[in-house]
Each structure stands twice: as structure tokens, then as C-alpha cells.
Amino acid sequence: MAKGNVGAKSGLSKVNKILFILFCIVLVGTIVFVVVSPAKVAENSGEESGEAASSEDAAVIDEFTPGTYGGIEFKTVDDVVKYYVEVFNYNKTLTAPYHEKGEAKTYYKLLGDEKLEITSLLVDGKENATINKLVPGIMGNLFSGSPKGLSPSDNRDPQYDTRDDGKIDEKQSHLTVDDVLACNVKDNGDGTITITIQPKGAELSFADKDSQGRFFNVLGDITGTVSQISVLSFSQGDANDNIKVLYQGGTGEVTVDTKTKEVTKAYYLMKVHLDITHANVTIIKDKSATMDLEYSNTYPASDDFLKTSREVTRG
Predict the structure, then answer these.
(1) How far apart are CA 27 and CA 187, in angstroms?
(2) In a 10 Å sphere around its CB, with 0-12 CB exposed, 13-18 middle and 19+ buried, how is residue 291 labelled?
(3) What's the DSSP call for residue 52?
(4) Rg of the chain on CA atoms, in Å
(5) Looking at residue 46, what is its pLDDT?
(6) How far apart are CA 47 and CA 311, in angstroms?
(7) Which of 272, 294, 113, 278 is CA-nearest to residue 201?
(8) Closest CA to 58 of 251, 221, 230
(9) Rounded to the nearest 5 degrees, what angle is found at the Cα of 207, between the Cα atoms of 173 and 252?
(10) Helix (H, G, I), strand (E, B) or coil at 165
(11) Where are the beta strands (DSSP E) in 167-261?
């Protein structure tokens, strides 16, 4: 690893392995709790485990209305996307002084936090109240977020904000109008506008390769990571056959000062649904599960997050 590359060992580079380590822990724990205290296990009233999430990629935000917002005219969705890209690219040129562990650094002016949460986990169509209470604590111990530039981003330092061995430059947005399922613009009446975008859904999303990957910090090759976890195998087929990943329903909200084109605040919420079938973990065989995840980035990151996550301070 090159010296100074502050992102290579943090955040989403480890998320896939974390998720399946967590899955293994929870799967074993769920089976134990089912045997010991079956009364605490509730049948899922909705989808059965292994059943894919809704295939309908429906808009969850208001429809775009052409008009003038913050002094800027938006006639079409294409206008909104082009302006968003322009704003994104400009903000990725802005830097500011920081200190990390006492050493002077130059990072993106706008840094955000990152959080990962499992919102639902069912094993063989059932959930367990006791396990559900344990999941946040397990996740908190396994996943530690780090400051990042405007999403998608893999670093707080512009010189290292790349993916795929430098082939993907995250300092430029590659979002297109064809990637967008829905968007809208709101005039806040204070010289700022808020652009909300919902990218089209995608399966097994990769950075910069699809609608989700050009907007969010997607998880990438989950199935490749699973093959490295020795305790996890499958009673039929392999990881490619038994792990289905659907990105759908996530949105991003970006508030922009129209005079300067600076982003004053932003919030990205990516939603992911995983279906896992025929899983074996140690002596537990042929189990199915569904897992719903939410990954979020909030800008600007709080001083407390910067300090506690990576000992970073502003100025």
C-alpha cells in the first residue's frame, strides 16, 4: 500500500467480509435461540426467506416539476442531472486544511460520515427478537466508518479518491440521465436549492459500472468475498448461484448554494436487499436468509465523527 493512502484499509473495502462474518454469527446464533427459546421466534408476515424483494423499481420521491429554482431554470430531468454533475465536479475541487493525529493534511472541504445498518434479517422466513437486539452491537464492533468525500467516494484525500487500481476517478461524477429513475428540485427560499435523486435499481452493483454505482458507494463483488470465508459454503451450487443482491429505493439529497455552487449539506441513503440460499455454516446446513441493509452518508460530518473515527480535526 502506498504511504499516505488513508482509505485503502477503511470503510467499504471491508464491508462485504464484515457482512458475511456477521451473517455467519447471526445464523448460528439464530439456530441456537430457535432451539433454546422457540417462543421468541416470530414468523415473517411478509416475504419468505429466499424470495426476492419487489422487482418493481418504483419512485419513492415526488415527480420533477419544470420551473425556476434559486434563479436557475430546469426544464427537464436532463437539466437537473447535468447541474448535479456540474455541482459534484466543482465540489470535488474544493479542499481545506485538516490535522490527522497531529499531522497537517489537505482533504476535501466537504467530508461526510458513513453508517451501515442491518434493518432486517430473516433465517428460513423467521426473525428472532433476541438476535435482532444483538445485531447492532455486533455490527458496531465490526464496522467503523471513516470520513469520505461527496458520494461516491473512497477517500477523504483527493489524490487517493480512486477505485479499480486508479482506473475510476471519483473526483468526477459519471452519472447520466439514463441512470435516474426520479428526481426533483426544491427552492429553499434562502439562496439554496435541494436536488433529490433516486437512481434506477441494479443487481450486484459495481463502482461506476451501473446506475447505483455511479451515485452511491456500492458494495461491489460480494460473491467474490464470500469465497474467502472458509466456514461458509453452500449445499447446492456456489456463491454466484445462491447470493442475489438488489440495490433499489435509495435516494440522495444535495443542498446547493446557487451563487457559489457549493454543497452546504447532503444525505445519501443506499438500500440493499440480499437473498442467500442453501447456506452451510459449520454444522448448520442448507439454510436460507434475507438481509436488508441501509448505508448512509451525511455531509458535513460532525467534528465528533471526524475525531472519534480517524482522529481528524478541521483547520
Answers:
(1) 47
(2) buried
(3) P
(4) 21
(5) 42
(6) 43
(7) 272
(8) 251
(9) 55
(10) coil
(11) 168-169, 180-187, 192-199, 202-203, 232-234, 243-247, 251-257
